[in-house]
């Protein structure tokens, strides 16, 4: 990951997180960037290896966004971490981790603003059926509207509630509340029938995580 990519990522996330958020960016082995906050500082330095049990380590191990309380025995300081793998053409390149002194309750807006033609529309998260990667943007589908968000799917995933949204494919995130039926598919994968009739695949890579998350 080059410095320009890191700079672009920071420009995006500064718009969403409050000042008391520490941010860490890593490749798959070590930290590349760290910005501490006044509320919590893990004393990470660029070049430090990713510690086992940290939020970044969990996200890279599971290949999935995680939101978790991290005990103080990892860094000497307890924190609540939100970490998401950074993917490029299906290959894991690293992770971006937001570090909070405690679990955030409502630090982000509950809306996704989508563009339709030349207008923008704020959509509540709970109205979103699914999100799909399309041409480096994110296609957002609701029962009444569909349009595009400027962030790509992996960037946007960090800001979605993990209790409601789940990654099921490198190109799809679905709202669990809008899953109407889960059908078995070939090679131990699944096919989701959404309440609007859309059929969305669960890829083999995400199948085990999907089953664990939904408890079947």
- Summarize model confidence as the mean pLDDT: 87
What does the largest sheet look like? 5 strands, antiparallel
How many separate domains? 2
Structural class: alpha+beta
What's the total number of strands?
A: 15
| Helicity, as a percent range | 10-25%
> What's the CATH first level of the largest domain?
Mainly Beta
Low-confidence segments: none
CATH topology of the largest domain: OB fold (Dihydrolipoamide Acetyltransferase, E2P)
Distance between the termini: 37 Å
N-to-C SSE string, H for helix and E for strand: HEEHEHEEEEEEEHEEEEEH
Instruction: Characterize the overall form.
Output: globular
Radius of gyration: 17 Å
CATH architecture of the largest domain: Beta Barrel
Strand content: 35-45%
- The largest sheet has its strands arranged as 2-1-5-4-3
What is the number of helices? Answer: 5
Describe this structure in words.
The protein has 216 residues and is an alpha+beta fold. It folds into 2 domains: 3-100, 2-Layer Sandwich (Beta-Lactamase); 111-214, OB fold (Dihydrolipoamide Acetyltransferase, E2P). Helices cover 18% and strands 41% of the residues. It has 5 helices and 15 strands. The strands form 4 sheets. Strands 2-1-5-4-3 form a 5-stranded antiparallel sheet. The chain has a 5-stranded antiparallel sheet with strand order 10-9-8-12-11. A hairpin with a 2-residue loop joins strand 4 and strand 5 (91-100). It is globular, with a radius of gyration of 17 Å. The mean pLDDT is 87. It comes from Lysinibacillus macroides.
């Amino acid at each position: 990951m080059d410095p320009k990519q890191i700079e672009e990522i920071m420009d995006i996330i500064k718009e969403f997180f409050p000042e008391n958020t520490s941010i860490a960016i890593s490749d798959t082995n070590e930290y590349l960037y760290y910005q501490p906050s006044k509320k919590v500082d893990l004393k990470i330095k660029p070049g430090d290896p990713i510690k086992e049990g940290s939020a970044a380590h969990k996200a890279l191990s599971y290949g999935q966004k995680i939101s978790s309380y991290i005990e103080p025995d990892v860094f000497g300081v307890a924190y609540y971490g939100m970490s998401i793998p950074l993917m490029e053409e299906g290959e894991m390149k690293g992770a971006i981790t937001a570090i909070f002194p405690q679990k955030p309750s409502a630090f982000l807006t509950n809306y996704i603003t989508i563009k339709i033609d030349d207008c923008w529309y704020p959509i509540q998260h709970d109205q979103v059926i699914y999100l799909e990667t399309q041409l480096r943007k994110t296609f957002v589908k609701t029962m009444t509207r569909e349009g595009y968000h400027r962030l790509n799917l992996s960037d946007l995933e960090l800001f979605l509630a993990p209790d409601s949204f789940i990654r099921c494919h490198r190109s799809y995130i679905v709202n669990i509340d809008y899953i109407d039926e889960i059908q078995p598919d070939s090679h131990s994968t699944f096919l989701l029938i959404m309440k609007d009739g859309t059929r969305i695949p669960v890829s083999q890579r995400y199948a085990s995580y999907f089953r664990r998350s939904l408890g079947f």
